[in-house]
UniProtKB/TrEMBL annotation, chain A:
One of its GO terms (biological process) is ubiquitin-dependent protein catabolic process. It comes from Caenorhabditis remanei. Belongs to the SKP1 family. This is Skp1-related protein. Pfam families: Skp1, Skp1_POZ. Gene3D superfamilies: Potassium Channel Kv1.1, Chain A (3.30.710.10). Residues 113-159 form the SKP1 component dimerisation domain. Residues 14-69 form the SKP1 component POZ domain. The lineage of its organism: Eukaryota, Metazoa, Ecdysozoa, Nematoda, Chromadorea. Keywords: Ubl conjugation pathway. InterPro entries: SKP1, SKP1-like, SKP1-like_dim_sf, SKP1/BTB/POZ_sf, Skp1_comp_dimer, Skp1_comp_POZ.
From TrEMBL, chain B:
This is F-box domain-containing protein. Pfam families: F-box, FBA_2. It comes from Caenorhabditis remanei (Caenorhabditis vulgaris). It comes from the Eukaryota. Residues 6-52 form the F-box domain.
């Protein structure tokens, strides 16, 4: 059923990137500000297409929403220590890929509570760390590596430029050395032929 | 269970990154920005830095503090020439505030402090310095270069606190250089011992707060030139005749029109009435009358009993009263 939600019993059909559909309660969906802005007042004819996200991710996201339907209104990020056992299990059973997919989907659906808890888990990785310690927890080349990479690229570019310049120079020289004699040769040949023709015609 | 390392934080959606950044300490944000060019670019995109204020401390230590939401969180880099202190973190606080200090070793602390400050300004997209706390006789040889550096890198200083360690040290020239070259926009706390009555500095007008701890050098001429909202002149040498003249000018709206509160050394109210107000129309308000008057910066009011009122030509009233051993003139 896909009609404007007025009670928690109302179910909506959600469509994933695989084209699969599944039910989500109106109460759970209303935690998504994106849904509220797009469909709450006008309803939806048929499945709601969240086709940028796969079924597993969407189910995970709405599993969270279904669970937190009865929790009190969201009032800002919770400290990690304040998370319930259920919350902790929910996060712990995700691998990194799923976790990232969930953040992306939660961010798109604008589910404040879930996004905030996910981000708090990430922030924990960075807290109290200096730059060197942060490098270890972030997938990123370091400034030195980038600089070294840039230097290598600059060297490569300089070398390539040198080769190109040399090639251009050689080509230019070749042109000067080879093309002129050819032109001269052609001209000479033409002259000879002309002379020959003229002489022939004169003959 | 923690997230597996390494984690591609900077590849997350912008709003998610911002959410992560919001829950970090400012120093952690700066640390993160130093990881790579991309990290720096991402860090600079954040839009919530308006709640951050940058403060500088130049005294026995050189510090850069980033305050969050009016001191709820304060993160300070402290330059140190003691290599063993490098990276040390001190953290303390109470229920509603956290202070974190990170020590940063450098062989050339002043230069590195300047570079770090420029970097912090750049990352947090700030052009104003919230607080400059400077003890002018601690880095005497560097004062001019520091002032020149600040003039070049910040448009204004919201609050400036000037100190000196030893009263016998002559800091007047550097104080004047600082005040003539940096724009102080809101508050100035002046804790210097100025010996020269011709101290070469014009007090900026329209400050919210002007506090001069040792104001012997403020004569009548300078007094009538001040036009700030809250003024404290301790140990001033202005005579009773000059105060009387000043008040007449104030009533005629010829001076200090922005004045809301003037705090002076403690004195007896009756004596003040007899000597200063003797030829000024005034009204002694009964002690049973309670009024909420400005008593402290910023515009904090307190219930005051009685007092003596004078009236300005536009109808504004100034009440003189003594509260907590402080002699005050409060305009309402």
């Amino acid at each position: 059923m896909t009609s404007p939600a007025s009670s928690s019993e109302v179910k909506y059909l959600i469509e994933s990137s695989e084209g699969n559909t599944f039910d989500v309660s109106g109460a759970a969906l209303r935690q998504s500000n994106t849904f509220n802005a797009m469909f709450l007042n006008i309803g939806a004819d048929g499945p709601i297409p969240f086709t940028d996200y796969n079924e597993a991710t969407l189910k995970k996201v709405f599993e969270y929403c279904e669970h937190s339907v009865n929790e009190e209104n969201y009032s800002g990020p919770k400290h990690q220590d304040d998370l319930s056992k259920w919350d902790l299990n929910f996060f712990n059973e995700m691998d990194q890929k799923m976790f990232i997919d969930v953040i992306n989907a939660s961010n798109f659906l604008d589910i404040e509570r879930l996004t905030s808890y996910c981000c708090e888990r990430i922030a924990r990785m960075l807290r109290g760390k200096n730059t060197q310690e942060m490098i270890k927890v972030i997938t990123l080349p370091t400034a030195e590596e980038l600089e070294a990479k840039q230097k290598v690229e600059e060297k490569k570019a300089a070398a390539a430029k040198k080769v190109a310049e040399k090639a251009a120079e050689t080509a230019e020289k070749t042109e000067t050395l080879e093309e002129l004699p050819v032109q001269q040769l052609v001209q000479t040949t033409r002259n000879k032929l002309t002379r020959k023709y003229l002489s022939f015609s004169n003959e | 269970m923690d997230l597996p390392n390494p984690f591609p934080i900077l590849r997350l959606p912008y709003l998610a990154i911002e959410e992560v950044f919001k829950s970090l300490h400012p120093i952690e944000i700066i640390n993160l920005s130093l990881i790579s060019k991309r990290a720096k670019a991402v860090t600079k995109q954040m839009t919530f830095y308006s709640k951050y204020d940058i403060c500088l401390r130049i005294d026995e230590g050189l510090g850069i503090a980033i305050r969050v939401e009016n001191k709820l969180v304060s993160c300070t880099y402290l330059m140190t020439s003691d290599e063993r202190m490098n990276g040390n973190v001190e953290e303390y606080g109470g229920n509603d505030y956290i202070v974190r200090r990170v020590y940063k070793y450098s062989k050339n602390p002043i230069e590195e402090w300047k570079q770090l400050f420029k970097y912090v300004l750049d990352i947090l997209k700030k052009q104003t310095l919230h607080l400059l706390f400077i003890t002018l006789d601690d880095f005497v040889d560097h004062n001019v270069s520091i002032i020149d550096f600040l003039r070049k890198n910040v448009k204004s200083v919201t609050e400036c606190q000037l100190y000196q360690d030893e009263v016998e040290n002559d800091v007047e020239e550097h104080a004047a250089y600082l005040l003539n070259n940096l724009k102080v926009s809101n508050e100035l706390h002046f804790h210097l011992n100025i010996k020269n009555d011709n101290f070469d500095w014009k007090i900026p007008k329209n400050l919210k707060e002007l506090y001069i701890h040792d104001s012997e050098w403020i004569g009548y001429e300078r007094l009538v030139e001040i036009d700030c909202e809250h003024v404290t002149l301790r140990d001033n040498q202005i005579t009773n005749e000059q105060w009387s003249l000043f008040l007449k000018k104030w009533m005629a709206m010829e001076t200090n029109q922005n004045l809301n509160y003037l705090r002076l050394d403690n004195r007896d109210l009756e004596e003040f009435r007899a000597i200063v107000l003797h030829d000024i129309p005034h009204e002694v308000v009964d002690k049973g009358v309670k009024r909420n008057l400005i008593f402290w910066f910023p515009d904090e009011t307190e219930e005051i009993n009685g007092g003596i009122d004078i009236r300005r030509i536009d109808g504004k009233i100034a009440t003189f009263f003594v509260q907590d051993n402080v002699f005050s003139m409060s305009v309402h």
